[in-house]
Design a protein that fits this description.
Residues 26-106 form the Desulfoferrodoxin ferrous iron-binding domain. This protein is mainly β. It has two helices and nine strands. Strands 1, 4, 5, 7, 8 and 9 form a six-stranded mixed beta sheet that branches. A three-stranded antiparallel beta sheet has the order 2-3-6, with no helix packed on it. A hairpin with a 2-residue loop joins strand 2 and strand 3 (41-45). Bound molecules: fe (ii) ion.
């Protein structure tokens, strides 16, 4: 998916653990990506179950300026874990996940 398409998904609204809107806690936790850093490798995970009609379709990372650094499109048969290489010189990253039924959720900003 292009950076423009990902931006269009974000424009519909972004939720997070810190800003859950009217989501109950369990729902926002299920959808919010978590970043684990190991050197320049960012592993992004979230505990959302995958089903044919209810699926995390995209996981991606951006820098603090909103530049998409890497993205992945998922099938419902894929696990909701993605590994990304963080480009040299990146100071921090934010991960996003898009659920086809519930929209876009963000991780906290994570300093590299
Ligand atoms: Fe969902």
């Amino acid at each position: 998916m292009s950076a423009e398409e990902l931006a269009a998904l974000k424009a519909k609204g972004i939720k997070s653990v810190a800003s859950p809107g009217d989501d109950p806690e369990a729902k926002v936790v299920k959808h919010s990506p978590v970043i684990a850093l190991e050197g320049k490798k960012a592993t992004v995970t979230l505990p959302h179950p995958q089903a044919e009609d209810h699926v995390i379709q995209n996981i991606w990372i951006e820098d603090a300026a909103g530049t998409v650094l890497a993205s992945r499109t998922l099938a419902w048969t894929d696990a909701t874990t993605s590994e990304f290489e963080v480009p040299e010189g990146t100071a921090s990253v934010i991960a996003y996940a898009f659920c086809n039924l519930h929209g876009v959720y963000a991780s906290p900003e994570t300093t590299i």
